[in-house]
């Protein structure tokens, strides 16, 4: 059995009760933290809190050479951990398909995701979000300006009146996390007047939500990671009120219908 368990957003207590129970009963526990990580804890703290030993795999060890995980799951109960939810923005469908091809039973224990947390913290209605996108560090895509994957997603969503979650690049192995001011500065080159909302440390005891024009957000400071940006589309009156109340956004700068 291979069970995918989402750890949630912040620390060793963010996991669901179901996830905790499955984790504590596992014969072996693997994890990856290259796509995202829990800023409020460490692997050692996770191990101590849940009384388990965690075998951390890098990208190659999950996507290229997953055999140690799959071999173990053929004969024992194995848990595979990630931050957030393992099948949302941190998707490991390929690993699940490989397990299925080998006749290994799989199960998913979902965790809290940044997508739903961003909706809740900003007051924007979850069903009015379109596809999300990730803003990479400029050196990561090797081209001038914003990648088309980012601008096309924002433009397409806005054309449809939908909100966009913009995830900010993480280089976990280097300990480098794009901050919201850097992300806003990159986006402002194409959208200087566009309103966006910073969501910092979602899931922590002290999340921050702050909105404004991208060129103004680029000059702000938002504290410790992890950060993301939300670009509102057309807002319902209640959404506009929420952004004014929770993110200090001037409703006159929003597209309200």
Structure summary:
This protein is an alpha/beta fold and 257 residues long. Helices cover 35% and strands 21% of the residues. The longest helix is centred in the middle third of the chain and has 12 residues, at 148-159.
Explain how this protein is built.
This protein is an alpha/beta fold. It has 2 domains: 2-109, Tetrapyrrole methylase, N-terminal domain (Cobalt-precorrin-4 Transmethylase, domain 1, 3-Layer(aba) Sandwich), CATH 3.40.1010.10; 114-256, Tetrapyrrole methylase, C-terminal domain (Methyltransferase, Cobalt-precorrin-4 Transmethylase, Domain 2), CATH 3.30.950. Helix content is 35%, strand content 21%. It has 11 helices and 14 strands. It has a 5-stranded parallel β-sheet with strand order 3-2-4-1-5, with helices on both faces. It is elongated. The model has no long low-confidence stretch (mean pLDDT 94).
């Amino acid at each position: 059995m291979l069970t995918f368990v989402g750890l949630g957003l912040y620390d060793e207590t963010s996991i669901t009760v179901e996830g905790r129970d499955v984790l504590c009963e596992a014969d072996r526990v693997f994890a990856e933290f290259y796509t995202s990580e829990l800023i409020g804890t460490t692997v050692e703290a996770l191990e101590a809190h849940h009384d388990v030993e965690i075998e951390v795999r890098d990208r190659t060890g999950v996507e290229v050479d997953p055999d140690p995980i799959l071999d173990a799951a053929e004969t024992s109960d194995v848990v595979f951990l990630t931050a957030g939810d393992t099948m949302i923005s941190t998707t490991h469908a390929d690993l699940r398909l490989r397990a299925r091809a080998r006749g290994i039973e799989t199960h998913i224990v979902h965790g809290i995701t940044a997508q739903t947390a961003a909706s809740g913290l900003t007051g924007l209605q979850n069903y009015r979000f379109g596809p999300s996108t990730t803003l990479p560090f400029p050196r990561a895509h090797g081209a001038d300006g914003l990648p088309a994957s980012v601008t096309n997603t924002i433009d397409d969503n806005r054309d449809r009146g939908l909100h966009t979650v913009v995830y900010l690049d993480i280089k976990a192995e280097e300990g480098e996390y794009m901050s919201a001011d850097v992300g806003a500065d990159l986006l402002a080159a194409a959208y200087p007047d566009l309103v966006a909302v910073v969501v910092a440390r979602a899931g922590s005891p002290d999340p921050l939500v702050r909105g404004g024009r991208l060129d103004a957000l680029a000059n702000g400071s938002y504290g410790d990671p992890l950060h993301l940006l939300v670009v509102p589309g057309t807002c319902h009156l209640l959404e506009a009120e929420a952004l004014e109340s929770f993110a200090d956004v001037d409703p006159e700068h929003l597209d309200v219908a």
